[in-house]
Specification:
- By secondary structure, this protein is an alpha/beta fold.
- Helix content is 41%, strand content 16%.
- It is built from 11 helices and 13 strands.
- The protein has a 7-stranded parallel beta sheet, sandwiched between helices. A two-stranded parallel sheet has the order 7-10.
- Helix 3 packs parallel to helix 5 and helix 7 runs parallel beside helix 9.
- It is globular.
- The termini are far apart.
């Protein structure tokens, strides 16, 4: 059991932040984080409302003084920078904000970290979207695969990835990148395709919705569970030397495959309900992602605890339970 370590998390109210906070608290950590000020406070903390023992303050990646104040007050041993504008399709609608948050925001975090607590270890949430259209000859993407992003989101993540490596080398800081492939859970926002599919399928099965509109049905992704991936984040920061690691399942499925599984679990045929709407198609599509996570598995001993089917079943049960309670 780890004792007395202190972890600071940006994006703590998000899917990954909430799972990471729970996991670190279970290991005996003191946990703090920042949340953005929101006029509807009920929605900005609903993933962490029931997690006891978190120290929260208001802050923003674009306000370096708020980050420095929080770090100065808490003095963490580990920093997890998970905050971002995280929706790839929406990055086309708000490219400037996405760039400011996901690129300049990382730089602000690194500067605050360098100035206030440079002996801490730093984790950056990098993304498989950085690879874009690059795929190695064996069909995988790994740490050495060239990065050719095909979205504003992916481009900003490449900057974050590289500036983290630059600060590691320039200032001898313990900065790390976790190159995480798609990861989901019941806590995923319902405007992301996995939870959109599951929530809509459940609503259709209950007679609450007639159809589901999606974008590219033949986009292939490597989907894992957020809980497994936050365990990987923690493992990365336990190493003596900093590094960069791909975190992935090594399996790929299409959105169509996912629809077929989810609807069939609810005894439905997705073809009767799912249609494609051009407004959900990206201006430049990313057709395929499949990660090779052999480095983190071999060097750090990371293992999956969820299968794709187990993850989707958990998400289905989550929405069935919610609508059951609402009906009651």
């Amino acid at each position: 059991m780890v004792k007395n370590k202190k972890a600071f998390i940006t994006g703590i109210a998000g899917q990954d932040g909430s799972y990471l906070a729970e996991y670190l608290l279970s290991l005996g950590y003191e946990v703090a984080g920042i949340v953005r000020r929101n006029s509807t406070v009920e929605h900005q903390r609903n993933r962490i409302d029931e997690i006891e023992g978190i120290e929260l303050s208001y802050g923003d990646l674009l306000d370096q003084s708020s980050i420095e104040n929080a770090l100065l007050s808490f003095q963490p041993d580990e920093i997890y920078n998970l905050a971002a504008q995280s929706h790839v399709r929406i990055s086309y609608d708000i490219p400037q904000f996405t760039t400011q948050t996901n690129a300049l925001g990382v730089l602000n975090m690194l500067e605050a970290y360098r100035r206030v607590c440079p002996k801490a270890k730093f984790y950056q949430a990098s993304s498989s979207e950085m690879f874009g259209s690059s795929v190695d000859e064996d069909g995988y993407q790994r740490e050495t695969t060239p990065m050719t992003p095909v979205s504003p989101y992916g481009c900003t993540k490449v900057f974050g990835y590289n500036i983290v490596r630059n600060y590691r080398n320039a200032y001898k800081l313990h900065t790390n990148n976790g190159i995480l492939f798609n990861h989901e859970s019941p806590r995923r926002g319902s405007n992301f395709v996995t939870n959109k599919v599951v929530k809509s399928a459940v609503m259709i099965s209950l007679g609450l919705q007639d159809k589901l509109e999606l974008g590219n049905m033949d986009a292939y992704r490597d989907w894992g569970h957020s809980y497994d991936y936050v365990r990987a984040m923690h493992l990365i920061l336990q190493q003596d030397k900093p590094g960069d690691y791909v975190v992935a399942t090594g399996e790929t499925r299409s959105v169509r495959d996912m629809c077929e599984y989810v609807f069939s679990k609810l005894k439905l045929d997705y073809r009767d309900y799912v249609t494609q709407n051009p407004k959900f198609i990206r201006p430049e599509e990313l057709p395929y992602l499949k990660g090779d996570s052999s480095k983190i598995r071999k060097e750090l001993g990371w293992e999956l605890t969820y299968t794709f089917e187990g993850m989707m079943d958990e998400m289905i049960e989550h929405w069935l339970e919610i609508f059951k309670k609402e009906k009651v």
